[in-house]
Amino acid sequence: MSLFKRFSSTSRVVALSSAVAFATQVAFALLMLRLFSPQEVGEFSVISQIGFF
Fold it and tell me: How large is the average pLDDT for residues 13-42?
């Protein structure tokens, strides 16, 4: 049972970390829209998502 609790806790930490990373990427993309064209920001977002996975 303790192994399951540990796994469950680890899974939550990983899921939360992924959500924070994705939110940070969204915020960064919105900031980049002020400096670059939407096409360039879209390409960056796709490439960074591929790199993340």
Answer: 89
> Under a CB-based contact definition with an 8 Å cutoff, are residues 48 and 25 in contact?
yes
- Closest of 11, 53, 44 to residue 25, by C-alpha: 44
CB of 41 within 8 A of CB of 32? yes
CB 44 within 8 A of CB 29: yes
Q: How crowded is the C-beta side of 50, counted as CA atoms within 13 Å?
A: 6
Average pLDDT over residues 33-43: 91
What pLDDT score does 23 carry? 92
Mean pLDDT of the region 3-14: 72
Between CA 30 and CA 26 the distance in angstroms is 6
36 DSSP 8-state letter: S
